[in-house]
C-alpha cells in the first residue's frame, strides 16, 4: 500500500496500554499516541482540516500566506500541509517555547517571529496581536486562528473521536486530555458523549491558567493568571474551541510534576512524549480515586519528546528551576570536605608588595580583592608577575590598579560538574556564598580532594 502524499498518513494513530506509570490505577489506562502523525503531533489533524475548510470557503486562495500564532505543533501541521499545497507560512510564538520547536518550523521553510510571553493577549507585542497585525499587512494572507476556528474541534469530532471509540470497542469510560486551544478535548468529547453520555471527560489544566476556576465558578479571574512553564496547555483567555459543557472536570498539575512525569514516561514506558503528556499522566495519578476496576481510561499523548530536549529532558534545565535534585557532589559537599580555614582576602587599597608578601607567607596563588568588605575582583600570581615584568615600580601602587575580574560566584547547590567547567586558566577558583553570607573559595585542588575523599 502507498499514499499519494504525506498528508494521507495523518490519523489512525495507535492506542497503547500504560503499565508501569499507571500501576496504581485500578482501571485499564490506554495512551493515544499522536506522535505517529507526520508532524509528530495531534495538531496535524486540525491543521489540515482548517486549511481544507478555508480553501472551500475561499478564505485561503492559491499562493496565499498562512499566518498563525502557535507554540509549534500547530505550526508544524500547517507548514507540512503548506509544503504540499503550495502556501507560504509566517508563525508567531512565545519566548517560553522550546528552541527545537522553532527550528523544526524553519526546517519546512516557515518564518518564525518570537514574541514575549508575559504580556496581555491584547498587548501589541503578544503573539496573538502580532499575528493579527501581519494578517492585515500581508497581501493574500489568511489566519487560521486555531483558538476560535471551530474546524479545530470538528477535526477531532470527525477523526480522533471515532478512532478512540472503535479502538476501545465502545468500552471507553474516561477521556483525559490537556486543554489549550480546546479543540482536541472538545471535538473528541462531543463525539464520545453522543455515543455514550456517561463517558467522563477530564481536562488537564496548569497553575497560571484560568480554565479550572472558570469551569467551577463561571468567573473569569485575572488573579489566576501568571507565567508558567508547562507547554501546550492552559490559557489566559477563553478560546471558543473550549466547550466547557463537555468537560466534566478540570485537574490542575504543577510545572514540576508535569516536567518530571514527562521523563518518567520515557523511562518507564519507552514512550518519548512531550510536556503536556507529562501533565496528563500526572493528572491521572492525582485523580486515581475517580477510577475503578473495569474502567477504560484513554489519555491523549499529543506530541513528541524531541521538541523538549533542551527543557524537560535536560538535567541542567531542571536543576536550574529546582525540579531535579542533583545527586552528584555539590559546592556544599566540596566545602564540607575542606580543612576549616578562613578565606583570605585583601583590600583594593593595599599595595602590590603587600599582596606579594601575603601570597608568599600563606603559600597561596590567588586572593579575592575586596572594597569595603565586598568582593570586587581578584589578584593572582600570574597577574602580579605580568605587571612586574611590564613595570617593576608597580610594587608600591595599590592592587586595585592590577585587579582583574572576580572569580565567578556559585551557590551551595551547584554541581561539581558545573564548578569544574567554570575553573580554567582565567578562573582558577570559584567563590561560594555559604551560610549566613559567609564567602568560601573552591579551587581545583579542593575538587580533587572532595572526589578522592
UniProtKB/TrEMBL annotation:
Molecular function GO terms recorded: transferase activity, transferring alkyl or aryl (other than methyl) groups
GO annotation, biological process: cysteine biosynthetic process from serine
Span of the signal peptide: none
Domain CBS, first and last residues per copy: 335-396
PROSITE patterns associated with the record: CBS (PS51371), CYS_SYNTHASE (PS00901)
InterPro entries listed in its UniProt record: CBS_dom, CBS_dom_sf, Cys_Synth/Cystath_Beta-Synth, P-phosphate_BS, TrpB-like_PALP, TrpB-like_PALP_sf
Keyword DNA repair: no
Keyword Signal found: no
Keyword terms of this UniProt record: CBS domain, Pyridoxal phosphate
Cofactor(s) recorded in Swiss-Prot or TrEMBL: pyridoxal 5'-phosphate
Family of this protein: Belongs to the cysteine synthase/cystathionine beta-synthase family.
Protein's UniProt name: Pyridoxal-phosphate dependent enzyme
Amino acid at each position: 500500500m502507498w499514499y499519494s502524499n504525506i498528508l494521507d498518513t495523518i490519523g489512525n494513530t495507535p492506542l497503547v496500554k500504560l503499565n508501569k506509570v499507571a500501576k496504581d490505577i485500578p482501571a485499564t489506562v490506554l495512551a493515544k499516541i499522536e506522535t505517529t502523525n507526520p508532524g509528530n503531533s495531534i495538531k496535524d489533524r486540525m491543521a489540515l482540516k482548517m486549511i481544507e475548510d478555508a480553501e472551500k470557503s475561499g478564505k485561503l486562495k492559491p499562493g496565499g500566506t498562512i499566518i498563525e500564532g502557535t507554540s509549534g505543533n500547530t505550526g508544524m501541521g500547517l507548514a507540512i500541509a503548506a509544503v504540499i499545497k503550495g502556501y507560504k507560512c509566517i508563525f508567531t510564538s512565545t519566548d517560553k517555547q522550546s528552541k527545537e520547536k522553532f527550528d523544526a518550523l524553519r526546517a519546512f521553510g516557515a518564518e518564525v517571529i518570537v514574541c514575549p510571553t508575559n504580556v496581555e493577549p491584547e498587548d501589541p507585542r503578544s503573539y496573538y496581536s502580532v499575528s493579527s497585525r501581519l494578517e492585515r499587512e500581508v497581501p493574500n494572507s489568511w489566519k487560521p486562528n486555531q483558538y476560535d476556528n471551530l474546524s479545530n474541534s470538528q477535526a477531532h469530532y470527525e477523526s480522533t473521536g471515532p478512532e478512540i471509540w472503535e479502538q476501545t470497542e465502545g468500552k471507553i469510560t474516561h477521556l483525559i486530555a490537556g486543554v489549550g486551544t480546546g479543540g482536541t478535548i472538545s471535538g473528541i468529547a462531543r463525539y464520545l458523549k453522543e455515543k455514550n453520555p456517561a463517558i467522563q471527560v477530564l481536562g488537564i489544566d496548569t497553575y497560571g491558567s484560568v480554565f479550572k476556576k472558570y469551569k467551577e465558578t463561571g468567573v473569569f479571574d485575572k488573579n489566576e493568571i501568571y507565567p508558567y512553564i508547562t507547554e501546550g496547555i492552559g490559557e489566559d483567555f477563553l478560546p471558543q474551541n473550549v466547550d466547557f459543557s463537555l468537560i466534566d472536570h478540570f485537574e490542575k498539575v504543577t510545572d514540576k510534576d508535569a516536567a518530571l512525569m514527562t521523563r518518567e514516561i520515557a523511562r518507564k514506558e519507552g514512550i518519548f512524549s512531550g510536556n503536556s503528556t507529562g501533565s496528563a499522566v500526572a493528572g491521572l495519578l492525582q485523580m486515581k480515586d475517580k477510577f475503578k476496576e473495569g474502567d477504560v481510561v484513554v489519555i491523549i499523548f499529543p506530541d513528541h519528546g524531541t521538541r523538549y530536549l533542551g527543557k524537560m529532558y535536560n538535567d541542567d534545565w531542571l536543576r536550574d528551576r529546582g525540579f531535579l535534585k542533583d545527586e552528584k557532589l555539590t559546592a556544599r559537599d566540596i566545602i564540607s570536605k575542606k580543612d576549616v580555614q578562613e578565606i583570605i582576602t585583601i583590600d583594593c587599597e593595599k599595595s602590590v608588595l603587600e599582596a606579594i608578601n601575603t601570597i608568599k607567607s600563606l603559600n597561596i596563588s590567588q586572593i579575592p580583592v575586596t572594597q569595603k568588605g565586598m568582593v570586587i575582583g581578584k589578584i593572582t600570581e600570574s597577574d602580579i608577575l605580568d605587571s612586574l615584568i611590564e613595570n617593576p615600580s608597580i610594587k608600591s601602587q595599590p592592587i586595585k590598579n592590577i585587579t582583574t575580574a572576580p572569580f565567578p560566584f556559585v551557590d551551595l547547590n551547584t554541581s561539581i560538574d558545573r564548578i569544574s567547567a567554570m575553573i580554567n586558566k582565567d578562573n582558577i577558583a570559584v567563590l561560594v556564598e555559604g551560610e549566613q553570607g559567609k564567602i568560601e573559595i573552591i579551587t581545583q585542588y579542593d575538587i580533587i580532594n572532595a572526589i578522592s575523599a
